[in-house]
């Protein structure tokens, strides 16, 4: 059976990193964009990370330019925006495609595991996936869902 731990992702420095390093930790995996109306969600994602990191939570951000070119071409600009404007300390990875023929295998898997309202395709920036301690994708949250509304689902994972 496939889990999230079977995937490798590319760091902002271009190296491959296995998600196996997060084994046993609940995760929020989110496709982000620096110039999106939902960009302010970085603040709430950081709040969740700070509140729950001692319980093992990790937030993984994946910049994407699939929707109206709302991501910088240069990853350094993305990282600067995240850190300076929103105080982000959780991991941000290299820019990926999250839909279409060139979609990153991780996001294809996430979308297959938790379908959206009408289809499995990711429709916009800041689609959030909740992964349990066993590497299973257990919930999907719409782009417009404020990350703080994920608290009840997160707390359920911590009690399991």
Present the secondary structure layout.
Blueprint: E1 8-10, E2 16-18, E3 27-32, H1 41-52, E4 58-63, H2 75-86, H3 105-113, E5 128-131, E6 137-141, H4 151-159
Parallel strand pairs: 3-4
Antiparallel strand pairs: 1-2, 3-5, 5-6
Rounded to the nearest angstrom, the distance between the terminal CA atoms is: 21 Å
Number of helical elements: 4
Estimate nothing, just give the exact number of structural domains.
1
Q: Which percent range describes the beta-strand content?
A: 15-25%
Q: Note the main sheet.
A: 4 strands, mixed
Rg, nearest Å:
14 Å
Helix and strand run: EEEHEHHEEH
* Overall pLDDT level: 90
Output the structural class: alpha+beta
The tally of beta strands, per DSSP, is 6
Give the CATH H-level superfamily.
Glutaredoxin
- Give me the CATH fold name: Glutaredoxin
From the 3D coordinates, which CATH architecture would you assign? 3-Layer(aba) Sandwich
The backbone outline, from C-alpha atoms, is globular
Q: Just give the CATH class.
A: Alpha Beta
Share in helix: 25-40%
Q: Uncertain runs with pLDDT below 50, 5 residues or more?
A: none
Order of strands in the sheet with the most strands? 4-3-5-6
């Amino acid at each position: 059976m496939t889990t999230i731990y079977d995937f490798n992702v590319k760091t902002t420095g271009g190296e491959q990193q296995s998600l196996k390093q997060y084994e046993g930790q609940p995760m929020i995996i989110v496709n982000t964009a620096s110039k999106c109306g939902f960009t302010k969600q970085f603040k709430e994602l950081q709040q969740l990370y700070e509140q729950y990191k001692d319980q093992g939570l990790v937030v993984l951000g994946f910049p994407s330019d699939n929707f109206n070119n709302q991501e910088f071409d240069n990853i350094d600009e993305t990282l600067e925006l995240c850190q300076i404007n929103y105080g982000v300390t959780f991991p941000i990875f290299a820019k990926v495609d999250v839909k279409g023929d060139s979609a990153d295998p991780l996001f294809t898997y996430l979308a297959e595991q938790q379908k959206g309202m009408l289809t499995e395709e990711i429709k916009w920036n800041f689609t959030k996936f909740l992964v349990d301690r066993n590497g299973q994708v257990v919930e999907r949250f719409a782009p417009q869902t404020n990350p703080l509304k994920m608290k009840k689902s997160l707390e359920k994972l911590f009690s399991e």
